[in-house]
Every structure is written in structure tokens, then in C-alpha cells.
Amino acid sequence: MNATAAPSAPSAAGPAHGEAGGFAARVRWAVADGWTITRRDVLHWLRRPGQLVAGLLFPVMMLLMFGFLFGGAMTVPGGGDYREFLMPGMFAMTMVFGVGETVTAVSHDMARGVTDRFRSMPMAPSAVVVGRCAADMLRSAITLAILLGCGLLAGWQWNGTGGEAAAAVGLLLLLRFSLVWLGIYVGLAVRGEGAVTAVHTLEFPLGFLSNAFAATATMPLWLGTVADWNPLSSTVTATRELFGNPGWGGETWIAQNALLMAVVWPLAIVAVFFPLCVRRYRDMAG
After folding, report:
1. Nearest one of 106, 114, 126 to 188, comparing CA atoms
2. Which residues, at least 6 apart from 284, have a Cβ–Cβ distance to it below 8 Å?
3. What is the C-alpha to C-alpha distance for residues 32 and 203, in angstroms, rounded to an integer?
4. Distance of CA 131 to the CA centre of its chain
5. pLDDT in tens, 70-82
6. How many CB atoms are located within 10 Å of the residue 166 CB?
7. Which helix (H) or strand (E) holds 214?
8. In the predicted model, what is the mean pLDDT of residues 194-204?
């Protein structure tokens, strides 16, 4: 890791600056430190292009497998092309699969002593976790753009307006944003490879116990209810509606209010895990 000079911690605001000036200095300090960590993580990708390419190819292979190998045997309640039904689910699943990447990166930094080195530097307490979040969001945006292109090449298309499609992409990235904080917290709280293995193992049941690949109406009532209340299902249903793809709607309250819940669920996750991440990192430094 290339050493990057960290900005000095701002001193307490003097009488001439007042509390507002002191707060502004702390914000600038936190932003500068967060950007330093983001650059460091992005440079690591550029030095390991094979790992980045492998991560980008995985969702593409999933798309080809479900869209072309299994798609012919699947039906969409109410009619419609299964590939159009599938694509919003694949987009959302890709956001879920990113949790494992976040946990892996945080756990490796902990194991190699990188996190301890950051804690010994005069950095803003939020810089390490905010920098990790920014880097992971950049990677997720690139992955989502590639997957959107692959979907268009495979025959998928959106049937709504450009603004609705942009809103759908925004909801997908909002889901990923919330799950980044979950991944950072797990990576900080649980030591060892066990955390990485557990998260990778749980990604699949979390993703499949939803409406990403099959409509919940085709499931047993109790299982369909659990799947409807999976936060992933709200994002999938909302993006299907915004993209104008088949399969959105439903009988339950949460399915009928998917657009609302696709915002509420991620915000609730962020409200819980962002302060937990900062507190956990601060406690480690104490």
C-alpha cells in the first residue's frame, strides 16, 4: 500500500472562528480523509484487474444461466417474457452479492494490520468506513452499468420513460448503499475467514428467498409472505414497475407499496448500521 499523507487533524476552533468554523473544518477534514481512503481502494483494484474482472463476470454468468438455461421452463403470472421478468431481479441480486466483497475487503485489511495502521493516524473516525463505502459504490455502479448493457444485448428492454429507468437504477444503488454499511459492520465486528464464508453462504438464501427469480404467488402462502417482506423483494418489485417489466404488483400490502418500501428499507438499514460502523471503529481505536 502506497503511503498517502493524511491531513493534520483540525485544532479546536478559536474565538475568531466560532463553532461554525470549527464544524466546517471538521467536515473538510473528514471529506479529505475519506477521499484518501477511496483513492487507496480504487488503486488496489487497478493493481489487481483479474479480481475485478472475475467479480464483474459472475453476475453476467448468472444472467446467462437463468435467462437462457432455465428461462424456457419458467412462466410469469399474468403473462410476459421471463427474461424481462428476470432482469430487475438480477440487478438487485448483484447489489446483494456485493456484500461479500465488502466484508472480504474489510476483513483482509483487519487481518493484515492495515486497519490498525489507519487507527494510529490522525484521521477522522468516519474516514475509513466512508472511504470504503465510496469505493464499493463506485465498483457497484460499474458492475450495474455492465449488467444493464448485457441485459440489452440479451433482448431485455425497459418500457417506461427515461426518468423512470433512472429512478429504478437509483433504487438499486440505494439498496447497495445500505448493504455496504451492513458489510462494513460485519467485517469490523467478526474476525477471521469465518465471517467471509458465512456472508457468502447467506447471500444465496437471502437472494433466492425473494421474488427475484420467481413470483411469490407461486410459493406456499407462508413462504410467499416471508419472501414479500424480504427488503430485496421491495426493490425488485419497484424496479420492475419503473422499468415497465412484467411481474410487479401483488395482493399483499407490502407488494402494493413496493415503491415506498424500496426507499424505507434501505434508509432503515443505513440508520442502524452507519452509526454502528462508526462506533465500532471508534471503539477499536480507543
Report:
1. 106
2. 115, 119, 188
3. 33
4. 14
5. 666 677 777 678 8
6. 11
7. none
8. 74
